[in-house]
Amino acid sequence: MKEFSSWLVEKTEAVLTWRARRKARKKQREAAVRARRNTLLKKLGGLFRELVETVLIVLVIQQYLIQAYVIPSGSMEKTLMIGDRVMVDKLTFGPEILPTVGKLPGLSSPKRGDIVVFENPSYISPGVAFEILHRFIYMMTLSLVDINRDEQGNPRAQLLVKRAVGTAGDRVRLEEGEVFYWFPGEGGWIAERALLGKGVRFSYRPQRLVSPDMYPLLEKAARAVVWFSEGFTPDLEGRAAYQRIADSNELVDYYAFELYQMGERARLHPEERDYARIWWQGAMGWYIPPGRLLPLGDNRDNSRDGRYFGTVSLRKVLGRPIFRFWPPARIGGVR
């Protein structure tokens, strides 16, 4: 019995020792797993905080200092081409407090000849919440992802980039596609071309694609269109001009064509003041009041700009392109 008791105690101690060691090993494994999990969570938490901080820094920089922007149209050719990606200085002219909400004061105001990025006066916003989401994605992807698209999947023209051709106090008009100025205190009109190359503000070169020989034909064709719409038979010269333009593949200055039509309608219907008002504004140009500017595209014959929607408030001007970073072959400053 004594030997059996000793054997039983020995075996019991062995079992208890084995169980204690197993529990100890289990606790060690669980502690190691918890430690690895905690370490992983700490790393993930650290990465998440770094990501949030990076996102906030990028958003602050792009909202208030400098933002990437892609050129959507050819209105600024050859200064800026479709698809060019540029960095836009937002600090100089004053950034928005939040997308579409308020505006902080800038260091200066746009000057005549500056390229400016501004809100499209014809743009209808889907709402502030969507605008904030759209701007967030647009800024975080450096303009690569644009969710603000129309029914056909094309990006909506929310922001436009043009040149500030007229500033406060100027009078500006277009005649046969050419810009003319009447500066404050001056006694008459002066052609833009006479000022090009005279200083930094007129160092740009507008592009003209419509030949000066086209304008007499446009005027005759416009008269023919108006006569036909009024039930009259256009004269032979007008019909020939219209047919020549219709059969030609040449670019047409549609703004001048519409203005010629307004002039003819005003002549036929002097009682209709709207015709005369539109024609008179086109003939005499725009006066740019304080706090506004007149934006025009450098591609003067193919630009939907201030000649259609008028002057733009300085509160809607968001920045100025200063550097082109894509494509590689066109990397460089913007002027």
Automatic annotation (TrEMBL):
GO molecular function: serine-type endopeptidase activity; signal peptidase activity
Gene3D superfamilies per the UniProt record, alphabetical: Umud Fragment, subunit A
Catalytic center residues: 75, 162
Domain Peptidase S26: 50-179, 284-326
Highest taxon above the source species: Bacteria
Single Gene Ontology BP annotation: signal peptide processing
PANTHER family given in the database record: CHLOROPLAST PROCESSING PEPTIDASE, SIGNAL PEPTIDASE I
Family from the record: Belongs to the peptidase S26 family.
Protein name (Swiss-Prot/TrEMBL): Signal peptidase I
Organism of this sequence: Winmispira thermophila (strain ATCC 49972 / DSM 6192 / RI 19.B1)
Taxonomic lineage from the root: Bacteria, Pseudomonadati, Spirochaetota, Spirochaetia, Winmispirales
